[in-house]
Amino acid sequence: MGLEDDGLAGITGDRLPDERRIEGDLSESIRPGGALWALASAGPQLRESAALAADAGLTALAEEGRPRAVVVAGVGTAARTGDILATVAGPRCPVPILGHRSAGVPGWVGAADVVIAVSASGRSPEALAAAEAAARRGARLVAIGAPDSELQALAERARASFVAVPRRAPARLSLWALTVPVLMAARELGLVNLVEADIAETARRLDEDAERCRPDADAYVNPAKELAMNLAGSIPVVWGSSPLAGVAARRFGDMLAANSRYPVVSGELGEVGRGRVGLLDGVFGSLAEGQTDIFADPEDDDQLTRLRIVLMRDDGLDGDDSGPKPDVRRADAVADLAARRGVRCDVLPAEGGCSLERLASLIAVPDFASVYLALAHGLDPMRVPAVSEMKDAMLGSE
Ligand SMILES: O=P(O)(O)OC[C@H]1O[C@@H](O)[C@@H](O)[C@@H](O)[C@@H]1O
């Protein structure tokens, strides 16, 4: 597909956000298959996927004992599931967990290792090549993706476990359906401590957040609409205060880029503090705040673009000694630095009794916010021409 004559590749949308667009008729996004519908299904996705994984014969994985390493192979959202596994397994995990985002597997992978190949469509060349390479090298293989896909055929040929995850929405809106089988495979290997109650509580939290973020709840009571409008027109800077919150921050970056088409800076505070926090002193930070014309019309097109910090704050679980204590001072310090420069900051605290639920508490509302922000600009969050054109371009070159 080439660029259309209007030079915008068929993109419609408005540079200026308008809150009225998210308070009006959202039937297109709520209908089955729509973006808000897909996000509202996060809890059911998680439960369904847990049941599918339980029936997929993953117990066979454990027969050969603990692996030397686990490689989670895939791209985009599929790759995020590897980051989630690493954070849920935690810093004391005895086995390295590596996300692999390019075709094939690293050169050292062999019979002592486990490869988890993930692809929502079941046809990303990266995941397929990883599954093939894993089988060739005699590594234990688990494949996760769409039923009746190339990935399933490959897993069957390799006599590997396959978890068939129904494809009801684009990959990025199927995060929970893809993540749970990855976690359950790692549980079989003794690498994560995830009990049924953790899965049930996480699903319940996703249900509750979907209810709070529902389209007919207006911005006063809807945290996702509020967050979307806070970010509207800004350059969002999303920082997580712990490795877990860092994964949620990067996920928000993925969603803001694909759904809302906003440029985002995201990362983990431990690293950010060594360089990126310098953004606060720059053109879009304190210089923009200090040079605001207080008499200018706030609706004015020429208003300066500003940073807006989203601080994902994870203070850890009380009594959890499974890793280093989260450094809460860092979160306080960055909030303070921002406040002193007039840079606005939204703080999202992690809640919940296990790491999966805490992660969900940092992902659910921002996921919805990314869709509301797209809709406020009149953008279709489901249709991302640049992504489709990239895929087409790459298919043409292979
Ligand atoms: O999970 P699969 O189907 O392999 O797709 C992997 C990735 O492909 C990209 O082009 C995007 O569409 C992402 O949203 C998606 O996560």
UniProtKB/TrEMBL annotation:
**Pfam families, per this entry?**
bact-PGI_C (PF10432)
Give GO terms: molecular function aspect only. isomerase activity
Q: Which SUPFAM superfamilies match?
A: SIS domain
CDD domains, sorted? SIS_PGI_PMI_2
Q: Which organism is it from?
A: Glycomyces niveus
Query: Per its record, how is this protein called by name?
Result: Mannose-6-phosphate isomerase
Q: Which domain of life is it from?
A: Bacteria
- Keywords, alphabetical: Isomerase
Q: Which family does it belong to?
A: Belongs to the PGI/PMI family.
Asked whether the keyword Isomerase is assigned, the reply is yes
Q: Which residue numbers delimit the SIS domain?
A: 58-191
